[in-house]
Design a protein that fits this description.
221 residues, alpha/beta, TIM Barrel, eight-stranded parallel beta sheet, 8 strands, binds D-xylitol-5-phosphate, binds zinc ion
Length: 221
């Protein structure tokens, strides 16, 4: 079955000095979602942005904002990111001790709730929560940095998850994050993906419109 894949540029690779212009240019290029990588220097070896920056971004775009929380103790910060205007919040299964509570806290605030899995985290960790989530984010690199190489064994993981979601009749979307480029996007999408996160390849392309045109062509070929 061919599905329409949404494209979510990760602003991690944007020029932060010109962030508003970068976001406007991404919007003009026809992207679907903005992917916001939130890192705390504990869960991952890097630090990025917090709620204040998310709030500032919210003011300059109508694009849906997907917050990818790569932070320990995510419960402490959910309220702030929701107030800041995130439309999706994804927590890592490795970081959320009371995952069911966390997911339902997010959903009760009427935004979409997702779970992310590191590359080495097995799919069975989703067994008792998959039907509750709007989104599963499969990390296809080890989180922390943009510009890494797609871990090819993640293709099987994505295919297995797709089969599981379809077999059970669940609604969860599948998002893939890390190492997605023009030349591998189609094979990754075909594994059954709903949202492709693209960081360095998008913002490093120099011409976002041209990049999106090429990407859409590659995805439909
Ligand atoms: C990595 C982040 C990704 C990253 C993707 O921890 O979660 O969203 O920005 O960047 P690329 O597309 O360059 O791998
Ligand atoms: Zn991410």
């Amino acid at each position: 079955m061919s599905r329409i894949v949404k494209i979510a540029p990760s602003i991690l690779s944007a020029d932060f000095v010109r962030l508003a212009e970068e976001i406007k240019a991404a919007e003009d290029a026809g992207v679907d979602i903005l992917h916001l990588d939130i890192m705390d220097g504990h869960f991952v070896p890097n630090i990025t942005i917090g709620p204040a920056v998310v709030e500032a971004i919210r003011k300059i775009t109508n694009l849906p904002l997907g917050g990818h929380l790569m932070i320990c103790e995510p419960d402490k910060f959910l309220k702030d990111f929701i107030s800041a205007g995130a439309d999706f919040l994804t927590v890592h299964v490795e970081a959320a001790i009371h995952l069911h509570r966390t997911i339902h806290y997010i959903k009760e605030r009427e935004i979409k709730a997702g779970i992310s899995l590191n590359p080495a985290t097995p799919l069975w960790t989703l067994d008792n929560i998959l039907n509750d989530v709007d989104l599963v984010l499969i990390m296809s690199v080890n989180p922390g940095f943009g510009g890494q190489v797609f871990i090819t064994s993640m293709l099987e993981k994505i295919k297995t998850l797709r089969k599981l979601i379809d077999f059970k009749g669940y609604n969860a979307m599948i998002e893939v994050d890390g190492g997605v480029k023009l030349d591998n996007a189609q094979s990754i999408a075909k594994a059954g993906v709903d949202i492709l996160v693209i960081g360095s390849a998008f913002f490093g392309s120099g011409n976002y419109r041209e990049f999106m045109k090429q990407l859409r062509e590659n995805l439909s070929s």
